[in-house]
Q: What sequence folds into this?
């Protein structure tokens, strides 16, 4: 990262049209650093604790959730397990809800429920109070899921919000909004779409996007990306 | 160093930050305060479900390094028994007040909650925090010059005398809410029972959304036993666990002039104290 100098010989109009190189530490970075240093110095946790949780946080993502649903589509016994003992089913795709603390992540708990879509019921999840989301199996929630806009509207105007994601459901399909605001975390198990006969677990998992598991999209052969792809860049994104 | 003109400019900026209804004078006299306005000011600002809004462009966002570090900071404090996450949710989502709730980034409020927690519970003094903030600012004065900001603890405390909750040890190997199983007695309701959500005058904190209060629904599932969030949020380990229920509501009954079909439903989880039998 190079230094940004105020060069008065420079064309100022041009300066204003390019994205400025952000060279100043932000208020948030200062606060995070100060708090983390003081916590470690006072022994509230150790640097090793912090590293352990960082490693956990860096490896979570939607892959195991997609595998779980793909396997459930192929194996009725596994589907039964997923719907009756979702913590045991999660383990079979590599997610132990007691990780990494031994009692679950402090913010996600160890109460997980998979909502099965049927030809007559479509589920969609939200946390109207904050951003409760099944992090251990689905990774961090997308920014739009946390916004007051989504949270205000999906509980009251679900069909309008779903239509903004391109999902229009017929009037004979019940839309069931699951507002996950206590210790349960929820994920949607969508219906297996037509046109996927003979597909392997890997092929099926590719079309089970994160948005399908939130309930704002349906799995569709040929579609392997989320509905919202527009992404705001970070000032100093996650360092790997 | 700021000049008098810069200080005046900042005061002018702050003067534009509105936090009250424009039709009522600020600093109202008691006779100028209606019950509805009182409820609006007292509503926990994180409870946004059903508030009016218009379609907006939804977008993703790359995560900042400090955002990941903030998430980890909050979770590690939970892992080592300094708080439970419900304390964070109140401090960072409700105690901030409406202006800060809507005015600063999501993870900035997580960070704010850590500072508040450590001060309120006596782990840090204001002086320690403030001097460290100034020190960190000073380290990077004049710009980052190619450096990535990072923490540089001067030492590592041994932590043996730090006050911690019992929960982080008791729940290890068992899980939360599993640790509370069998501790709430018999459940008052069963699946299929009709219930009404009580309209309690909830001040300061709750996780029972305003939009279901007073509404009737059906118990869809008896879920688990746990202390209510209204107890967990104030670190009351002696609080008795109670039963939680997933309650199903008909959207056409929940919302005045619901625009979708009659079959649409909404489910949410509610602790027993908030429910009463309905016919």
A:
């Amino acid at each position: 990262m190079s230094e940004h100098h105020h060069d008065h010989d420079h064309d100022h109009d041009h300066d204003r049209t390019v994205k400025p190189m952000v060279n100043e530490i932000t208020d948030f970075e200062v606060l995070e650093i100060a708090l983390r240093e003081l916590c470690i110095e006072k022994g509230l946790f150790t640097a090793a604790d912090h590293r352990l949780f960082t490693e956990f946080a860096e490896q979570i993502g939607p892959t195991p959730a997609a595998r779980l649903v793909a396997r459930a589509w192929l194996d009725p016994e596994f589907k039964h397990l997923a719907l009756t003992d979702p913590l045991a089913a999660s383990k079979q795709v590599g997610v132990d809800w007691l990780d990494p603390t031994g009692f679950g992540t402090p913010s996600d708990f160890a109460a997980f429920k998979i909502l099965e879509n049927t030809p007559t019921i479509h589920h969609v999840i939200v946390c109207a109070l904050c951003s409760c989301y099944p992090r251990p199996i689905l990774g961090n929630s997308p920014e739009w899921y946390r916004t007051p806009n989504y949270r205000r509207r999906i509980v009251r105007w679900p069909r309008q919000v779903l239509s903004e994601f391109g999902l229009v459901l017929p009037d004979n399909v019940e839309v069931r909004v699951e507002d996950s605001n206590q210790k349960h975390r929820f994920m949607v198990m969508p219906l297996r779409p037509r046109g996927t006969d003979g597909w392997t677990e890997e092929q099926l998992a590719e079309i089970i996007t994160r948005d399908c598991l939130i309930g704002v999209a349906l799995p569709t052969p040929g579609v392997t990306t989320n509905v919202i792809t527009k992404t705001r860049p970070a000032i100093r994104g996650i360092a790997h | 160093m700021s000049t008098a003109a810069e200080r005046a400019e900042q005061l002018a900026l702050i003067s534009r930050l509105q936090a009250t209804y424009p039709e009522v004078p600020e600093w109202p006299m008691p006779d100028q305060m209606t019950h509805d306005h009182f409820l609006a000011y007292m509503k926990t600002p994180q409870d946004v479900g059903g508030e009016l809004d218009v379609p907006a462009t939804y977008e993703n966002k790359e995560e900042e390094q400090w955002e990941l570090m903030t998430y980890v900071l909050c979770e590690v404090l939970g892992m080592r028994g300094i708080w439970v996450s419900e304390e964070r949710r109140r401090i960072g989502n409700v105690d901030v007040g409406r202006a800060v709730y809507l005015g600063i980034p999501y993870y900035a409020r997580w960070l704010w909650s850590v500072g508040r927690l450590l001060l309120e519970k006596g782990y840090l003094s204001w002086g320690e925090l403030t001097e460290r903030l100034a020190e960190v600012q000073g380290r990077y004065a004049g710009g980052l010059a190619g450096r990535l900001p990072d923490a540089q603890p001067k030492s590592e405390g041994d932590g043996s005398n730090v006050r911690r909750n019992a929960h982080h040890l008791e729940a290890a190997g068992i899980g939360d809410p599993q640790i509370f199983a069998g501790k709430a007695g018999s459940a008052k309701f069963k699946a299929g029972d009709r219930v009404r959500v009580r309209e309690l005058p909830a001040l300061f904190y709750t996780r029972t959304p305003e939009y279901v209060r007073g509404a009737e629904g059906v118990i869809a599932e008896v879920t688990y036993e746990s202390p209510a969030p209204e107890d967990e949020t104030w670190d009351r380990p002696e609080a008795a666990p109670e039963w939680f229920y997933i309650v199903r509501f008909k959207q056409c009954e929940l919302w005045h002039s619901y625009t979708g079909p009659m079959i649409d439903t909404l489910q949410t989880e509610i602790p027993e104290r908030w429910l009463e039998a309905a016919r």
